[in-house]
Amino acid sequence: MQNILPIEASMLCPVHPLKLEITMSRIILACCFGALLATAGARNANAIGSADQAAWAQARLACADVGIDPDTGAFGQCVFDLYYSLWDEQNESER
Q1: Full-prediction pTM beyond 0.85?
Q2: Total domains present in the chain
């Protein structure tokens, strides 16, 4: 039995093939851009963490340089005070 109505290929897919390719390309580009942003955010977070660790290490070295024994509570207080005093000075413009 034959089909009474002829069906053309263009009738099967209502979206033009070129439009479909453009849409899929945009989706792929959006996904790649999102992945790129996520990677950049992770790198920035790692850089901030690394800078923070370096600042704490410098504060520990400075307190040790002035002769405070690292095994005392005074050493911990010195490191804490020095780190946050420097942090306050560096971030004064943001307040």
Answers
A1: no
A2: 1
